[in-house]
Amino acid sequence: MTVDSEKVSANGQRVSRRVRSGDSEAGDIVPFDEMLDDLTEAVLSREDIVRYLHGSHGESGPQVRDRICGYLEELRTTQRYPIYRALKHPLYPILRKIDRQTEHIQIPQRATAAGRVLYASNHRSHIDYLVEPLALDEHEIRPPIMAAGINLFGGALGLLHRHVTGALPIRRNTKDPVYLITLKAYVAELLHRHDLMFYIEGGRSYTGELKAPKTGLIHAALQAGRADLVIVPCAVAYDVVIEDFILARQRIKRSQRGFGRELAELVRYGVGYKSRAIVTFGAPIPVEGCDPHSRSDVLELAHRTRHAIGLLMKVLPTAVVAAAMRPSITRRALETRVAEIIEVLAATGANMGVFDPRDTVEHAARAFVARGVLVVERGRFRIRERNVLRYYARSLEHLLHTPADRTH
Predict the structure, then answer these.
(1) Whether 224 and 350 share a structural domain
(2) In this structure, are residues 264 and 270 in contact, taking their beta carbons and an 8 Å threshold?
(3) Are residues 303 and 218 in the same domain?
(4) Local structure of residue 145 (DSSP, 8 states)
(5) Strand 275-281 and strand 285-286: pairing?
(6) pLDDT tens-digit series, residues 182-233
(7) Number of domains in the chain
(8) 114 and 260 share a domain?
(9) pLDDT band at 17; cut points 50, 70, 90
(10) End of a domain among 288, 312, 336?
(11) DSSP class of 272
(12) Does position 257 have pLDDT exceeding 60, yes or no?
């Protein structure tokens, strides 16, 4: 079914076009040039873009339009989902090391049946880009476009993202107003065609903590003006994060590194790697009533979403033991401290994956000793990699409100 619509074009004239009222389904292939033309027209016809071209922010003219079109060229993406699904096979050497588990999958099933979905997740690892979409795919839920850092778009991986997975390249640190207004307009129009998954913290957490929310993509989603749009919070948690040593030692992200360099490091730390990856979906958060022009509304929605994600993050043995550790501690004393932390966490409504203190210490000790983070000497646990241990402990700070640096 198609409907006629009118919009204001970039030159100020009203133009008509025919728009499909249906949404793309899993398995659809949107022709590359068709998607480009359709989205370019839609973005350039948006009121905020038209106003910008007419000098609302002090810039105007052909040069501004060329910059907007250049950014649209950078943002354009095509999702060829039948090919995307086949990627599981060459990625098997990585995926076989991960025990993937999914909780509350019925939530996205119902949400996608009812309307448009914006998935908001925490960001722990590059592995997130695999395990979260696969959790949806394995239950035949239509695939979202993934928002990803532009550093993941170089070389062959970039071609894969642009022409197969349909990932959306994001320049996270730019303050160029032309780019920001183009990105938000593009995302708003994209949500009329696809669901979108993004990481509310922006990039990965280099400290291990759940970072403050970024509001840009939530603001853009609200500008789509879809009455059926909901935010589905989701969280991913790992017993062991494959790049834990890399992240913990850097701690503060000083520059955007190429993915090829990070991949080499991942291979190094991936030797002997095994972990669970638990993806949990939460109750949809409606956006109806949120004013995209109200900064306080957007910020409140972002914090509400981040809070929901924090409660969804599975509490696993490694995080609890890391929070309970002292520089040197006996097993009995460690179990006592773990029991206290479990009690506090359960009272906050956290998504508990630990219950028995003895089992918790046993599972975490096995993982940390194998990883070289802890060592057992004469019946006592001693810390070998303090920064890595703190990285795991900080993943509970939003629940415990206790800085990890003070514990060890």
Answers:
(1) no
(2) no
(3) yes
(4) E
(5) unpaired
(6) 999 999 999 999 999 999 999 899 999 999 999 999 999 999 999 999 999 9
(7) 3
(8) yes
(9) very low
(10) 312
(11) T
(12) no
What is the residue whose two structure tokens read 């983070």? 373
Tokens linked to 243: 């790049």
3-class DSSP state for residue 148? Answer: strand
Band of the pLDDT at 28, cuts 50, 70, 90? very low
Domain-ending residue, one of 281, 312, 343:
312
337-351 pLDDT, tens digit per residue, is 999 999 999 999 999
Mean pLDDT estimate for the chain: 84
Question: Is 262 in contact with 203 (CB distance < 8 Å)?
Answer: no
In whole angstroms, give the CA distance from residue 35 to residue 78.
Answer: 8
Q: Are residues 107 and 222 in the same domain?
A: yes
Longest dimension (CA), the chain: 81
Give residues with Cβ within 8 angstroms of 238, minimum separation 6. Answer: 124, 125, 127, 275, 276, 277, 278, 316
98 and 192 part of one domain: yes
Based on the domain organization, do 235 and 344 belong to the same domain?
no
The CB density around residue 239, as the number of other CB atoms within 10 Å, is 23
**Rounded Cα distance, 76 and 169, in Å:** 9
Identify the domain containing residue 42 by its residue range: 2-74
**Token pair of 184 as six digits:** 């938000």
336 token code pair? 């006592």
Written as six digits, the tokens of 138 are 């394995």
Q: Return the pLDDT at 151.
A: 75
Task: Assess contact for 132 and 121: CB atoms under 8 A.
Answer: yes
Express each pLDDT in 367-392 by its tens digit.
999 999 999 998 899 999 999 999 99
In this structure, the answer to whether residues 212 and 271 fall within a common structural domain is yes
Q: Note whether 242 and 383 are same-domain residues.
A: no
Residue type, 69: C
Q: What is the CATH number of the domain that holds 390?
A: 1.10.10
Q: What is the pLDDT of residue 80?
A: 66
Give residue for tokens 């040039």: 33
- With a pLDDT cut of 70, the percent of the chain lying above it is 78
Distance CA 389, CA 142 (A): 38
What average pLDDT does range 235-247 have in this prediction?
95
- Closest C-alpha among 229, 227, 230, 198 to residue 215: 198
